[in-house]
Amino acid sequence: MLHSDPLQPRPTLVNPSHLASAVDQLGHHAASQAEVWHLLTQNFIVDLDAVAVLLPRSEPEPHWLPTRR
């Protein structure tokens, strides 16, 4: 929220169902999960822990060892 205007009020999302709906709608317009975070924090005041529960975790791809012969 570094570039947000402190004089412009933003709606607060505290209800989990409203927050889930906002994340779902922003997910259709965003190209990545990082962009969902950005759009959500630019447009709303939210509990980031509650958003983290809603968004899927990004796991690194596993590095498989070659099989032994």
Characterise the protein shown here.
By secondary structure, the chain is mainly alpha-helical. The chain has helices spanning 16-29, 33-43, 48-54, and strands spanning 12-13, 45-46.
Compile the SSE list and pairings.
Elements: E1 12-13, H1 16-29, H2 33-43, E2 45-46, H3 48-54
Parallel strand pairs: 1-2
Helix pairs in contact: 1-2
Summed up, the helix count is: 3
Structural class label: mainly alpha
For this structure, the quaternary state is single chain
Largest sheet properties: 2 strands, parallel
pLDDT < 50 runs, ≥5 residues: none
CA distance, first residue to last residue: 54 Å
- How much helix is in the residues? 40-55%
- Beta-strand fraction estimate: 5-15%
Mean pLDDT: 81
| Spatial ordering of strands, largest sheet | 1-2
Shape assignment: elongated
- N-to-C order of helices and strands: EHHEH
Q: State Rg.
A: 17 Å
Number of strands: 2
Please supply descriptive tags for the structure shown above.
69 residues; mainly alpha; two-stranded parallel ribbon; 2 strands; elongated
Compact description:
This protein is mainly alpha-helical and 69 residues long. The protein is built from 3 helices and 2 strands; from the N terminus they run E-H-H-E-H.
